[in-house]
Design brief:
By secondary structure, the chain is α/β, with parallel strands linked by helices. It has one domain. The protein is built from three helices and seven strands. The strands form two sheets. Strands 4-5-7-6 form a four-stranded mixed sheet. A three-stranded mixed sheet has the order 1-3-2. The protein is globular and about 45 Å long. The two termini are 30 Å apart.
């Protein structure tokens, strides 16, 4: 639930779309009722699946029409696909933190390699790493804010 009294937001809007590499695609969403590990990537076990519509970060940021100071991506193993959906609007994002934990798919793999390669190839520099939660912070060398 989103708290409308949140100090970080002035106006809140909720979208019923999942972030993905393509816009307006129907994709399976695998629901786990424990551990907060529901994902667009099929996990080892799940309670049920449902179909959801998707949107890219490019479309979302373009519609927002303002620079982003910090973007946190935590997609339960779908982080590479979410990042692929961010190419045209990358220069509008100053920092990106990615949760690269061992949550991807049936084998519970980390996404650190794919996410780091994508961001470094797009002129982000590796800035900081947290081993505690397998999180990486990247700074955009081309930021225009």
């Amino acid at each position: 639930m989103i708290n409308s009294n949140n100090f970080n937001t002035k106006k809140i809007s909720i979208s019923d779309k999942a972030l993905w590499k393509d816009n307006e695609e129907k994709i399976n969403f695998y629901i786990k009722d424990y551990g907060a590990d529901s994902s667009l990537i099929e996990p080892k076990d799940y309670l049920k699946k449902t179909e959801v519509d998707t949107i890219t970060l490019d479309k979302f940021i373009s519609d927002l029409n303002k620079p982003i100071k910090l973007l946190k991506i935590e997609a339960e193993g779908a982080e590479p696909e979410v990042l692929i959906g961010l190419s045209k609007e990358l220069k509008k994002v100053n920092y990106i933190v990615v949760d690269c934990g061992f949550e991807r798919g049936i084998n519970s793999e980390s996404t650190i390699r794919e996410c780091s390669q994508y961001l470094i190839n797009n002129n982000f520099e590796f800035y900081k790493y947290s081993e505690f939660r397998t999180m990486c912070l990247f700074k955009n060398l081309d930021f225009i804010g």
